[in-house]
Amino acid sequence: MAPRRPTGAGALPTQTVEPHATQTPEPAPLYAALDLGTNSCRMLIARPRGAQFHVVDSFSKTVQLGQGLEVSGKLSRASMARTVQALQICRRKIEQHDVRHMRLVATEACRRARNARDFIRYVRRETGLPLEIIEPEEEARLAVISCAPLVSKATEQLLVVDIGGGSTELVWIDISGVPGPDRPRAIMRLSGGFRSDPAALEPAAQVVDWISVPLGVATLKDQFQDVEDDAARFALMSWYFEEKLADFSPYNSAQAREGFQIIGTSGTVTTVAASHLGLRRYDRAKVDGLRMSSDQIDRVIRDYLLLGPEGRRTDPRIGRDRHTLIMSGAAILQALMRIWPTDKLSVADRGLREGLLYAQMSADGVLEEGPY
Predict the structure, then answer these.
(1) Which CATH entry fits the domain spanning 31-134: 3.50.50.60, 3.30.420.40, 3.40.50.300, 1.20.1250.20?
(2) Where are the domains of the chain?
(3) What is the mean pLDDT of residues 28-33?
């Protein structure tokens, strides 16, 4: 006897169950960071990815905003017009990517210029961009946190150096009390300020001292334009910069070589690194994080001096935008390597823009806690 078919068999179900369609996650929001310095205008547009970020667009142009500032104390009409043209390109990129989170800052040239406020209003009128002038301490802090991923777990004393167009920021940090694996993260926590929180539950990075020297690659070069001999001008620039460090407390204290790290972030440092590697075409992946010895840096600088002004102008490793500024930057770099107890420099192709991005994303809670 054939089995009986159950009642209702074959009837359409009253409720269908279907697998959920795969939902495409909303892309992370975009952030913009713009650094308007004495010599350059540079911008990054990025979105958070894990504990870091992914760059989706960038812009960089030499604008020479501080040209003539040493003599007149004011930003010239020509330099302001050049800068606004560059900022209009930045505005178009921000609009094209529909960026809603941004921080756009100006540094030393605008801090020193008597007509800086007029310039900020001019920028707002012509571009609509909310450009702001930041203080030296914030500039130094942002440069420091941008370098957090390059801090070695073995580092106990850290010196971060940011050589700009109009100023050079140096920050000395003691992280000897922080467990090795947590040291990069401790640097990142300085995004809240250089003053440590006595109520903090975790060991923290301690800022021993910091200084903003009002000499960068453009302003130092301008100080010695009347010296015709190339080698003499370089020596005078290096000596003059070293003199400005006399009040920086780590300059006068004995430091052990063990556990000491210098991280240099600037176009000067990355150019010297690219020259050391013999790169005819710049490659960030090869430069960022590179460690150079004092001897290697000295060899590159000696090579620059042997080339002379005309040879540096045509050297593809230096580039036409930087050839007039490379020796003042090299003078600063050599002075720093001469003073402190290390023969190694970590090269950072990162700086104020990256610090601005980290700070914004960290404040919004869109970065993951994890290794950098």
Answers:
(1) 3.30.420.40
(2) 31-134, 137-353
(3) 94
